[in-house]
Amino acid sequence: MLGDSINNSSERNSIELDLGEKQDAELCRVATIDIGTNSTHLLIAKIERKLNTFSIELAEKSTTRLGERDPQTGELTSLAMNRAFSTLKRFKDLSESYKVESLIIAATSAVREAPNGKIFIAEIKKKIGLDVELISGAEEARLIYLGVLSGMQFGNKPHLVLDIGGGSTELILADSSEARALTSTKIGAVRLQREFIKKDPISSQNELFLRSFIRGSMESAIDKVSKRIEAGEIPVLVATSGTAMAIGSLLSNKENHMQSKLQGYKITKNNLDIIVSQLIKMTPSERSQLSSLSERRSEIIVPGALILQTIMNMVDVNEIILSERALREGLVVDWMCRNNYLKDQLSFQGSIRERTVIHQAKRFGVNSKRSKSVSEFALTFYDQTKGILHNDNGGGRDLLWAAAKLHACGKQINISAYHKHSWYLIKNGELLGYSQSEHLMVAAIARYHRKSFPKKRHESWQLLVDESQRSLVADMSLLLRLSCSLDRRPEPLVSKIVIEANNKKVNIELIPNNLGENLDLEKWSLTKAILLVKKIMDVDINTVSYTHLTLPTKRIV
Predict the structure, then answer these.
(1) Model-level pTM?
(2) Is 124 in contact with 92 (CB distance < 8 Å)?
């Protein structure tokens, strides 16, 4: 698992109060533009001032091809600059329509290396009225690190962050505390395609040359990060940006698991080797017919894939994790730090999971009071019935909590089948800090909290890759089913539940908010859920409610 379990209930409740109940939290918007070698990207982020967090409201991309510089002089061509001018004018108009507080623009490899790069930046100021910051390779690497850090739980493990751009490749060794090494190398998908690929498909000889060139170019960066890896550490390889996302989409399609979100998606070395060998043999026209590749991406995917594959072999890892966040998100984090919205750049790490789940609950209009009760009941069931109702070793606790918080989000679409809509919304929503498989498990747990049990024909079940995941989902969904059975009223009447569990017997006591309140409805509903659980589990479960002025003799909370 990528993250630690949610154990600090006071911290979690504080975050929930901020995100769930302060509906009037101040908002501001910030726009960032990344002028890259192949594409120019716009991102508009919505920042919650009081909460020190942000979400992505709009993302736009335009293929400007600044990397197609004059072969004789190396200068940016008039055609490429005009494409960029048009794109930047449009992005400026979009940003203004969103009433952004600030617009941050960064130019990277293609502009900083072109002899007329500074003239180009001056023309942007003159023609469009935009200030562009020309950033160095090291600064680009730092910002990429901040972007990845904002959306991925690092835990206590070092991470190698790999960003393959059009003109440069950044490799960063970092953990949740600091960036240990920042490197930028002048190789990229567009650069290699322009300089070394004259015939496509490439010959075996050209392929061998490219691999050797990439290896030689990256040796210095690999050596730098290797020296900062401590004895016994095994870094996690994280890949960002166009090449990695395109390959992730291709593999996802191949597995018949088309993913709208690739955050946390894992690419194995074996699968990467297979897809690269296939892409190398195809013409650009054939590659463009693949549903995951645009015409321009099909032209540069082979050199980009060779960079990814070669670096994976050089660092000797068997798996890559994808991050959808990179430079543009890093610019947002950097702006928040400079404007005192974050104490430091690491503020996201301690609560990525909690914040993203509660933010999604708020976004989908989930009743915060009711979901809070259900999630607390679910964690009580989890903690007090281990070895009886489930055998999870701790990893499922986070997933159960997230599913409990989001299980009712589908009610905004259709009340009668809301569990199915909840699955769809969770699956296609943003759950930062969770791996791709964890994301799918959260969605599936929410899917099976009511109505039918899992069936082989269900897409939600098919997307779970192995029996261990299916077993975990099955167990956690039963706990959530029991918890949701107590959520019967607009205002929760059950204050807490007390559970005594031993051998194959579970006693559940319902404690009302106010002594004397009648919990017959909740007891009836829980009993129905218990009968369903008993059909698949050999466990004796009983329930009692306290409706009179008496207190339970034993409380386990």
Answers:
(1) 0.74
(2) no
Give dist(CA 30, CA 104) in Å, integer: 8
Rounded Cα gap, residues 308 and 277, in angstroms: 13
Q: What is the identity of the amino acid at 157?
A: K
CA distance 125 to 122: 5
Residue 283 CB neighbour total at 10 angstroms: 11
Beta-carbon contacts of 346 under 8 Å, excluding residues fewer than 6 positions away, are 149, 176, 177
DSSP per residue over 283-313, as a string?
A: -HHHHHTSTT--HHHHHHHHHHHHHHHHHHH
Q: How far apart are the first and last CA of the chain?
A: 26
- Tokens (6 digits) for 453: 């049990």
Rounded CA-CA distance 118/100 in Å is 26
Alpha helices (runs of H) in 134-203, residue ranges in sequence order = 137-149, 189-196
451 contact partners, CB below 8 Å, separation of at least 6 = 417, 419
| 3-class SS of residue 53 | strand
- Pairing assessment for the beta strands 505-512 and 540-545 based on DSSP bridges: parallel
The answer to whether 367 and 518 are in contact (CB under 8 A) is: no
Contacts of 422 (CB under 8 A, 6+ apart): 406, 407, 408, 409, 410, 411, 443, 446, 447
pLDDT tens for the 557 residues of the chain, in order: 333 444 555 555 555 554 444 444 468 999 999 999 999 999 999 987 766 778 899 999 999 999 889 989 999 999 999 999 999 999 999 999 999 999 999 999 999 999 999 999 999 999 999 999 998 888 899 899 999 988 888 877 899 999 999 999 999 998 877 889 999 999 999 999 999 999 999 999 999 999 999 999 999 999 999 999 998 888 999 999 899 999 999 998 877 655 667 888 999 999 999 999 999 999 999 999 998 888 889 999 999 999 999 999 999 999 999 999 999 999 999 898 888 777 665 555 556 788 778 888 888 899 999 999 999 999 999 999 999 999 998 889 999 999 999 999 999 899 989 999 999 999 988 887 787 788 899 999 999 999 989 999 999 999 888 899 999 999 999 999 999 999 989 999 999 999 998 888 999 999 998 887 889 999 999 999 999 888 888 889 888 765 443 444 443 33
**What domains can you pick out in the chain, each with its CATH number?**
20-135+330-338 (3.30.420.40), 152-324 (3.30.420.150), 364-545 (1.10.3210.10)
Distance CA 524, CA 494 (A): 13
Tokens of 167: 């003109």
